[in-house]
TrEMBL record:
<keyword id="KW-0808">Transferase</keyword>
<dbReference type="InterPro" id="IPR016181">
    <property type="entry name" value="Acyl_CoA_acyltransferase"/>
</dbReference>
<dbReference type="GO" id="GO:0016747">
    <property type="term" value="F:acyltransferase activity, transferring groups other than amino-acyl groups"/>
</dbReference>
<dbReference type="InterPro" id="IPR000182">
    <property type="entry name" value="GNAT_dom"/>
</dbReference>
<feature type="domain" description="N-acetyltransferase">
    <location>
        <begin position="4"/>
        <end position="150"/>
    </location>
</feature>
<protein>
    <submittedName>
        <fullName>Diamine N-acetyltransferase</fullName>
    </submittedName>
</protein>
<dbReference type="Pfam" id="PF00583">
    <property type="entry name" value="Acetyltransf_1"/>
</dbReference>
C-alpha cells in the first residue's frame, strides 16, 4: 500500500465507497443485527464516516459512532462499520482505518473503542482480535462485543 489517508465522504468518493467489493462469504457479516436495530436511533451529529484512500483510489470505508450519553456502553465509542475492498484486504487498510477511528475517539475523550461482530468462519472476528480487541460480552442476538483500550 502507498500512502493511506482518510477523508470525509464527498460526491467524489461516495460512489467509490458504495462500490467496494468483498471477498466471497463476507457479505453476511457487513452489518451485525445489533447495529441494524440501533441505526434508527443513531444521531447524525455523533457519526464519524470516512473513506480510506491509497493515493487517489478509495480502498476502504470506516464509520464510527461517538455518543457518550448512549445507554449502551458498546455504542458510546464504536466501530459502526468497516469495509475494505477485496483487492486491498490483507495490506493494512483495515488496521489503518481502525487506528484513525481510535485517534478520533481519543480526541473526543474516550479511552476505549468497541465493535460488534457476528461469529462465523468468514467473519471479521480474527481481524478484530489481531488488532487488539478483546471479547467482553455478547449482544442479545448472540454477536460478540469487542473492546479496545486506546
Amino acid at each position: 500500500m502507498g500512502d493511506l489517508r482518510v477523508e470525509e465522504l464527498s460526491a467524489k468518493t461516495i460512489v467509490a465507497a458504495n462500490g467496494l467489493t468483498l471477498r466471497p462469504g463476507q457479505e453476511q457479516y457487513v452489518t451485525p443485527v445489533s447495529y441494524s436495530a440501533n441505526d434508527a436511533y443513531l444521531n447524525p451529529t455523533t457519526t464519524w464516516a470516512r473513506v480510506v484512500l491509497d493515493g487517489d483510489e478509495v480502498v476502504g470505508f470506516v464509520r464510527g459512532n461517538f455518543d457518550p450519553d448512549n445507554p449502551r456502553e458498546e455504542f458510546r465509542s464504536c466501530v459502526w462499520r468497516i469495509n475494505v475492498d477485496a483487492g486491498a484486504q490483507g495490506r493494512g487498510v483495515g488496521r489503518f482505518a481502525v487506528r484513525e477511528l481510535a485517534n478520533e475517539a481519543r480526541t473526543r475523550g474516550f479511552e476505549t473503542l468497541h465493535v460488534i461482530w457476528e461469529i462465523g468462519d468468514d467473519g471479521p472476528g480474527d481481524f478484530f482480535r489481531r488488532i487488539g480487541f478483546v471479547e467482553v460480552g455478547e449482544t442479545e442476538y448472540g454477536e460478540i462485543i469487542g473492546k479496545l483500550a486506546i
